[in-house]
UniProtKB/TrEMBL annotation:
Comp. bias regions, Low complexity: 374-394
Gene Ontology cellular-component terms listed: cytoplasm
Record key words, sorted: Coiled coil, GTPase activation
Coiled coil among keywords: yes
Organism from which the protein derives: Pararge aegeria
Signal sequence extent: none
Segments forming a coiled coil: 486-513
Lineage, highest ranks first: Eukaryota, Metazoa, Ecdysozoa, Arthropoda, Hexapoda
Keyword presence, Coiled coil: yes
Limits of the Rap-GAP domain: 68-284
Biased composition (Polar residues): 345-354, 520-534
One biological process term in Gene Ontology: regulation of small GTPase mediated signal transduction
One Gene Ontology term of the molecular function aspect: GTPase activator activity
UniProt-recorded name of the protein: Rapgap1
Gene3D superfamilies per UniProt: 6.10.140.210, Rap/Ran-GAP
Amino acid sequence: MSLKNDHMAGQDHTRILLRLRSTTMHGLIPTPNSGIAPSPLRMAKMVNDQVNVDNFMAVMCLNASSLISTFDEHVLVNTFKFGVLYQKYGQTTEEELFGNNETSPAFNEFIEILGQRIILRDHKGYRGGLDIMNGHTGTEAVYERFYDREIMFHVAPLLPHTAGDAQQLQRKRHVGNDIVAIVFQEKATPFTPDMIASHFLHAFIVVTPFETADGETRYKVAVTGRHDVPFFGPTLPQPPIFRKGRELKEFLLTKLINAENACYKAFKFAELEQRTRASLLQGLADKLKEKTVEFLGTGAGNEPGAVSPQPEGTPKQEGSGTEGPGSKFLNTVRKVLNPKVRSPSVDTNLSGDGNKNNVLNKKMNLHDTPTPNSGRSKSSIASSSASAVSVRSAGGSGESSPDVTSRVAPPRPPLHDHSDDSSLNSVDLDPLGAVYVDSDTGLESMSSAEAGANARDQHNTPRDADQLRQEVCRLKNDKLDLLKQNITWQNEIKCLRERVITLQAELAAASKERRHREQTATIIPNPSTHDSTA
């Protein structure tokens, strides 16, 4: 939704452009005298009360206007291609229309009205799918510029003629893929849209020339199309007869362009257009949201390895946007590992055992806010750190770093449901760039024994980093194995389904044969009974 303030008739108004999956709606509402404009959601409902979104997110990023304008203008088309068929007197089949290789002077005079007859080789304008390099689609065509629009005509007699091909597929490949076509009749001959078998052709303009008593050439124009094509202008005059000249040209070209735009509203094209529009709109929304997040820094977090302190007792929210660069991969691994088949190392995370600690505890505690009682923070970050250590320790490490938090009170109670999320995300922290002893940590209450333990933790940092990298590699391999198993199972399911279909077909055939045998046995008389009767 786009909003713009306008001043009209001495009063401020808000112009609204609401983009929906089906269409784009425009509205103009006056600004209240209080100066307080309604919320964006209320404005949207003023334009369309069927809007069912909960809220709108402000778009604040570079080139947002350009991206939105590109979406709005994707329906604007300045290039068109139309077919031109030549129908001789008495021709009533598709093969006869596409097979015409010779034309009359009247037809050549008519196509000169439509546009300029050009040489296709090295043509610089719109080519409408014709070959301008090698001449595979003929040497000449009819081209016209009409009010900043480019039009290419697929004139069937100018396209290559294939000897021995009754359907002339080379010509039909171009004319049959157009949406609107002109049928030029040498003389008045019946024509119906069903004569041309095409999924695309939806409207036809039939032009029939005739001469008046004084020898002047006039053109009779008729319009026909499929039943689901709505009306399009300009309206035919009464009688629908035109003189040769500029008036006929402008009427035909305008009618052709409007006919194509109207055909897009037919069921077949409307359904395709709606799917395309919905896909483009969803892509635009996702791209604007992503660029806004990047521009504002929301969800980017700090540098890799940095952890922002959280209030005590505040759990880390899943998908809050504060995860590190590798969180997407870890989220994928977490989805693959079903809780019902969780490995023992992951089960250890849920218990939050405080006896297995790592140098990550040191890093977390350095960023925690001290409490008045113990000088340490008991935030959820420290809990997630202990959980992350348990993943590494259970993965095969025979040693653990000195117990820095051994003086903290009894073991922690079980973590919240999201502790699994916190532990996996904590593995992504950079162990080399974030584990260090700051000269000014603000933790003056730390004892000398703890300081010595911290020094030993820093010494063990490279080994811990290697172990974490190995753990990530192992998780990647597990993910690939699970994906391979999934593909194998899908193939087996497909084979079983095919087997079921085959067995059902065999069962149906056997049942049919059984019924046939029973009917045959009922019809054939008993020979012994027949002999006794005789």
